[in-house]
């Protein structure tokens, strides 16, 4: 199933201090308190702190803009300034943000750590790529990507209904892998 970013309504962050677009959630129609995994794209236009998500493992990657510095639990800093490079952190961490220069958009993967493990990967090699069975979502971050259900453009996502994708020259995808825990 192809998901167009324009079809995902803007909604407030859990703490109400920013906005996001939920791209996909599992199980379908799960809420903020009962998802196994969730993918969203956040609009970060101020130095607002991130929402707290106890029990959730998070991964984030810069999509657009010059990025920001995250200060986690008042002592560990990470600069999220290189596009498409995932950074993992605990959802219960206290995260303060300092924008580098203007607003940004970032890709977010959240996984309930008691139920699953998740991984966010960046792929940018042109050509055909086989998808492992644990890949639950492909996000086109730049360029175009062909799938068995149609073409993705920057901002689009795909819940795989096939076994491969083809990246055009210059395309970048973020791939979400999920492994359920027994």
UniProtKB/TrEMBL annotation:
InterPro entries: RmlC-like_jellyroll (IPR014710), RmlC_Cupin_sf (IPR011051), Uncharacterised_HutD/Ves (IPR010282)
Domain of life (superkingdom): Bacteria
Residues of the signal peptide: none
CDD domains: cupin_HutD_N
Pfam families per record: HutD (PF05962)
Name used for this protein in its record: HutD family protein
Organism, as annotated: Rhodanobacter glycinis
